[in-house]
């Protein structure tokens, strides 16, 4: 007869953790379990952080690949600049929609590119967001005058820096004329003593005008400043610097700032006071034949007026 196979009864062997627990004192087991939980949590944090960074990199790349990077100017409102002009300035940073925003060298490169733009006096800050937005805090050069040479027309700021000609949104520049010479390239400063003297007078008037209520301002009535007789080089007995209004009225300023003839010519403060007092009489200069600003003596009567 064939022997029947007797099935061996498998004995349940204690698991690893059970054997380990049985071999340790209760205090040792509690310490080991606590440390094991801490190690497990740390591993979960490390793995989760690595996975999160990988996802962030993938997300940033996908964002920059599917749309243009938005640019925003965060400085105070600039009324004289059009939105098109501001956008052109921001684009001179060299930002591209293919840029990897996680690249740490981009901010310094953008700032360096912007600093080469003649319209920018100073780059205060460039900040990139991981959602694709780039913010620029810039100090721009406001044009004060317009000059012209054989190559074309240019704008000039208060420091004499030559700027490309652009359309202004809500600004006004005065034409500087009377000095024929080649101008430097945009971004460089003019060197003509006559133009610089005229620019200094323009800046002196504009800085005062900007602080006044709109009803008292006269800056927009000034159309041209002629510096051809700077330092009396053409006619010693005539005014050195001469304004013309939009209505072609002469405003005889006199010598450049700091070059007034003592005991003969009014100081700049007196000229400025006379300029605004005359304007306040009729609300315009074009009721006068001309306006003399150099006179030291108090006026007895107003100059002849038109019509």
Question: Could you characterize the architecture of this molecule?
Answer:
The chain is an alpha/beta fold. The chain has 3 domains: 26-66; 71-140, Roll (Ubiquitin-like (UB roll)); 143-292, Rossmann fold (3-Layer(aba) Sandwich). Helices cover 32% and strands 18% of the residues. It has 6 helices and 11 strands. The strands form 2 sheets. The protein has an 8-stranded mixed sheet, covered by helices on one side. Helix 5 links the parallel strand 7 (174-177) and strand 8 (222-226). The longest helix is centred in the first third of the chain and has 41 residues, at 26-66. The radius of gyration is 38 Å and the shape is elongated. The model is unreliable at 300-307 (pLDDT under 50).
Fill in the CATH topology of the largest domain.
Rossmann fold
User: What is the general shape?
Assistant: elongated
Helix residue percentage = 25-40%
Provide the number of structural domains. 3
CATH architecture descriptor name of the largest domain: 3-Layer(aba) Sandwich
Helices, by number, come to 6
The unreliable regions are 300-307
Q: Gyration radius, to the nearest Å?
A: 38 Å
Distance between the termini: 148 Å
Strand proportion, as a percent range, falls in 15-25%
Which descriptors apply to this entry?
alpha/beta, Ubiquitin-like (UB roll), 6 helices, elongated
